[in-house]
Amino acid sequence: MSEKKYFYITTTLPYVNAKPHIGFAVEIIRADAIARFQRKMGKTVFFNTGTDEHGVKIFQKAQEEGITPQQLTDLNSQTFRDLTQTLNIQNDAFIRTTDEKHQKSAQAFWTACKEAGYIEKRTYTGLYCSGCELFKTERDLVDGKCVDHPTTPIEEIAEENYFFKYSKFADQLLKLYEQKDFVIPEFRLNEIKNQIKEGLEDFSISRVKEKMLWGIPVPGDDEQVMYVWFDALVNYISTLGWPFDMDTFNKFWNSENSTVVQICGKDNLRQQTAMWQAMLASVGLPHTSHVIINGFITVNGQKMSKSLGNVIDPLEIVKEFGVDALRYFVLRELSPYEDSDFDINRFKEAYNASLANGIGNLTNRIMKMAEDNVSKDDITLSDELPSEYLEKMNQFNLHQASGFVWTAISNLDKKIQETQPFKLIKEDKEAGQKIIVNLVEELYVIAQMLSPMLPEASQKIIQAINDHKKPETPIFNRI
User: Fold this and answer.
1) What is the DSSP letter of 334?
2) pLDDT in tens, 306-322
């Protein structure tokens, strides 16, 4: 009997100073498709997401709205939780960094790191971007501005903080990067390698409490709170119970039979693939298996911004077109690793071409022929999936895997056009029936491949096949 396999996947935790936008929807849809596929392959899966709820921006936003930071995070965190339900996300945990369990884990991590000799207190003067909530070096800036927050003034901050001895881990990180597919895609791996080779500087992991009132208290020092990034990164293991429920943690993170995957945007490259990996090493915990780095979602070539008024609300897209339509566009039409433009006209064109006129119409045609001409008993359904599809999904390449599925859809449609079984059945009943049976069997395989990507549509196709009739309502209505 084969040993049980465990698969852990986590998104980043979005900051709750604003409502969810399409960028996070993209991340969580991709993570969900991976998690669903791994479950389909028989692995025991733990899929984590949640919200990041501490820091200066939360405190300032709460002050603007005249409420407490806790009230603000309670309200905004719920919108992200609601989004997971709207997008049909099968997450196993939704962690909030204000959860008592997480705060205790973060403090335990701090204590373990300090006892290992990797945290010390220093007086420091540095350049700080409140947009990133990160200290910056001169080489991080372009014309004195943060690349990701060019309109946010860089502050020079002088105070006594605790520092993480990041500089001690350069060689260990470069060794880690030799691990196959540790960072996906490879050009992001090369990017972080170059950053490490330029040299690492220890970074601040606390703020003076009187200047930053909303954060987790530093163990043993009532005058300091944890820097938001240090606190938030620990969620990836606190959600598994570390260090209080080691059974769950060991199964999913600390086992030869476990795979650990993190998925994030390109602005998180350093935090996920270097800072967090160094933090794990500092307390003697295993590294992540793979970190998948997504590109940004742009609108008309511009980064989404509230000031520009171009922020796309995923809930509005789902309300108008349905959840599987958004999932399709994310998984097949957007580039997985480069920046991609979200254009509503392109979205509608893809919807009609690939969904309504594509898999939807194909299902109707095949099942109508099957209902009228063949017996359900003549059809043999197989759950065996094509090796090329399995290869792409196991590589976490959802874009290529979905491309493979739509090629199969196109080929099946082409087979109908070439063989014309609806005509052949009148001239050679047996030959026509054989083709129709084969079409149904191939459609079933397509539905199985679609199940991690478009779960609702997949289920409707499988139901039509099981009912042996054309769906009563269109799987995708034309727009």
Assistant:
1) S
2) 656 778 899 999 999 99
Tell me the per-residue pLDDT of 44-101, one tens digit each, with 9 for 90 and over: 999 999 999 999 889 989 999 999 999 999 999 999 999 999 999 999 999 999 999 9
Domain harbouring 127, CATH code: 3.40.50.620
- Cβ atoms of residues 413 and 366 within 8 Å: no
For the chain, give percent helix, strand, coil, nearest 5. Answer: 50, 20, 30
Q: CA 301 to CA 209: how far, in whole Å? A: 40
pLDDT at 304: 72
**pTM, rounded to two decimals:** 0.92
Structural domain that includes position 205: 6-294
Angle ∠(364,367,372) on CA atoms, nearest 5: 120
d(CA 310, CA 419): 48
| Same-domain pairing of 290 and 364 | no
Note whether 433 and 425 are within 8 A (CB): yes
Q: In Å, how far are 436, 461, 465 from 420, measured between CA atoms? A: 10, 22, 20
**Pick from 276, 294, 312: which residue ends a domain?**
294
Residue with more model confidence, 132 or 377: 377
Tell me, yes or no, whether 86 and 180 share the same domain. yes
Confidence of residue 2 (pLDDT cuts 50, 70, 90): low
Domain end call among 253, 268, 294: 294
First to last CA, the chain: 51
**Helices vs strands, H then E, count in the chain:** 20, 18
Q: Could you tell me where the beta strands, DSSP code E, fall in 305-414?
A: 340-341
Using CB atoms within 10 A of its CB, is residue 92 exposed (0-12), middle (13-18) or buried (19+)? middle
Q: Within this chain, do residues 35 and 93 fall inside the same structural domain, yes or no?
A: yes
The candidate with the shortest Cα–Cα distance to 324, out of 93, 22, 89, 91, is 89
Residues composing the chain: 479
Q: Which pair of tokens denotes residue 207?
A: 């703020």
- Statement: residue 1 has pLDDT above 60: no
Q: State yes or no: cis peptide before 243, omega within 30 of 0.
A: yes
Burial label, 308 (beta-carbon count in 10 A; 0-12, 13-18, 19+): exposed
Instruction: Label each residue of 154-201 as H, E or C.
Output: EEEEEEEEEEECHHHHHHHHHHHCCCCCCEECHHHHHHHHHHHHCCCC
Tokens of 345: 């006209």
